[in-house]
Amino acid sequence: MNPVCPDVVEIFVTLADQARVEQMNFVAQACPPVIAVASLLCEWSAGRSLQELAALTQEDLSRWVGPLPPNKRHAVQLTFLALQELLSPRSFNPVVEGV
Predict the structure, then answer these.
(1) Range in 24-33, 77-86, 89-98 the model is least confident about
(2) Helix/strand/coil (H/E/C) assignment for every residue in 23-52
(3) Other C-beta atoms lying within 10 Å of the C-beta of residue 80
(4) CATH number at residue 79
(5) Which of 17, 21, 38, 73 has its CA 20 to 30 A from that of 50?
């Protein structure tokens, strides 16, 4: 949760194999910029490797969404933190389709 506002986003991924994203989805209770950034991330991720996801930076997300007003810049950070949470060893529990 963001300390500035109550926005929340959680990201889920389906893997085609142990290292490639088949589909990424999110659920959010958030402002439109958070939803936009999460949506861009999900669209970009299809077919990408987990290594590509891990290499993604907050600056990459910021560049994709473009300039945001100061009171909405948390959208990039919140989505990036949700991605980091997804990829963290303590929360990553891959389920491989077709296995």
Answers:
(1) 89-98
(2) EEEEEEECCHHHHHHHHHHHHHHCCCEHHH
(3) 19
(4) 3.90.1010.10
(5) 73
